[in-house]
C-alpha cells in the first residue's frame, strides 16, 4: 500500500427528517450565507425545511448558482458575503452548489475580489470560512470531500480545486429530497459515482484488499440499485444510491492506492467546450480510455471482471475486454452516451488538448503517461 493520511471530519446526518437538525450544526453566533442553485429547493420544499430549522438565525441568501458553477457568479456572491459580514456558508443543492459553497468560503476568506490565481496556485494556503452541505442530488461526493470543480467563463476553463480545510463541517443527506429529481439527473448521479469508483480502482494493483473489496461492493450496489432507482424511486433505492455515491468519493477507497482521473479531466474539458452534463462526458470517454490502456490495467480489469461482473474467464486479457463491454452496457442502460457521436457533438481534439494544457493536466493516468497524443487517440477511438 502507498503511504496515506486520511482525515474526514465531515459529520454525516443521514435519513428522512435530518434537515430539521441543521440548526444544531451551524455555530450559534454565525451569520449564514445560504447558497442555492436554479430554484429546485424552492419548489420541492427543501428551502422551507431549511428556513424553518434555522428559525430566527441571521440568514443571507444567494441563489442562481449554475450547473458547473461559474467563478464570475461566485465573485458576486463573495461581494455580498463580505458586505453582510457572513461567517458561515451553507450550500443546499447538488454537487454544483456544494462545490460552489466550498469555493466561495475560500474566496470570501481571501479578502480579494479576484482570488482565482491565488486559489489555483495553492488552494490549501487559504483557510476558508466554515461551510456545511445539505445534499439534494447524490453523485459527486462533494458533500464530504475537499474538492470544488469550478468553471470560469473569462478563462474558458473548468478545473478542480482541492483543499482539505474546505471539507464541509457537516453533510445532511435526506434521501427523500431525491424524489423531485428528474430521470436524467438520477442517471447522471449513479453513473458519476460509478466512474469515481473505477478511477480509484482500475489502476496498478497494490496490496489494498480493503480498498478493493469496498470498491467492488460500491460498484455492485450501483449496478443493482442505479437501474432500480430509475424504475422505482423506492425509499431503499434512494438510500442506497445516496450513501454509495457519498462513499465513492469521500477519500476512503482512494487512500493508499494509485488513482487515474484522466477520464474526469478529459470530461471537464468537454463540458467546458460543449456544456454537456458532467456524467455524460465521462461515459462517452471511459470505455475507449479503458480499451486504450487495457494492457496496463489488465490485472485490475480482470479482477473487476471476476469480482464485480462474475465473468468466468481464465485469460486476463479476455476477462478485461468483457468487463469493459459490461461497463459500457451498464452506462447505456443508464441512458448515457458511450460514444461522442451519441451526444450529438463534433469534438475537436485540439480544443480538448488546449484545455488540458491550460489546466496543467498534460500527464494523466496512474502512471502519468497519458499525454496529448494519447488523448487524441482515445478521442478518435471514442468518436
Ligand atoms: O440548480 P438547481 O435548481 O438546484 O437544480 C439542479 C440542477 O439543475 C437539479 N437538482 C438538484 N437537486 C435536485 C434538483 N432538481 C430537483 N430536485 C432535486 N432534489 O439538478 C441539476 C444538476 O445539479 P448539479 O448540482 O449540477 O449536479 P451534480 O450533483 O451532478 O453536480 C455536478 C457538478 O459537480 C462537479 C461536476 O464537474 C459538476 O460541475 N463534480 C464535483 C466533484 C467533487 N466536488 O468532488 C467530483 C465530480 O467528479 C464532479 O466533477
Ligand atoms: Zn465525477
From TrEMBL:
Family note: Belongs to the iron-containing alcohol dehydrogenase family.
Gene Ontology CC terms, in alphabetical order: cytosol
Domain (Fe-containing alcohol dehydrogenase-like C-terminal) ranges: 189-380
Top-rank taxon: Bacteria
Domain Alcohol dehydrogenase iron-type/glycerol dehydrogenase GldA: 9-175
InterPro entries: ADH_Fe/GldA, ADH_Fe_C, ADH_Fe_CS, BDH-like
Protein name: Iron-containing alcohol dehydrogenase
Catalytic activity: a primary alcohol + NAD(+) = an aldehyde + NADH + H(+)
The protein's required cofactors: Fe cation
Molecular function GO labels: alcohol dehydrogenase (NADP+) activity; butanol dehydrogenase (NAD+) activity; metal ion binding; methylglyoxal reductase (NADPH) (acetol producing) activity
Keywords annotated in UniProt: Oxidoreductase
Cited Pfam families: ADH_Fe_C, Fe-ADH
Gene3D superfamilies: 3.40.50.1970, Dehydroquinate synthase-like - alpha domain (1.20.1090.10)
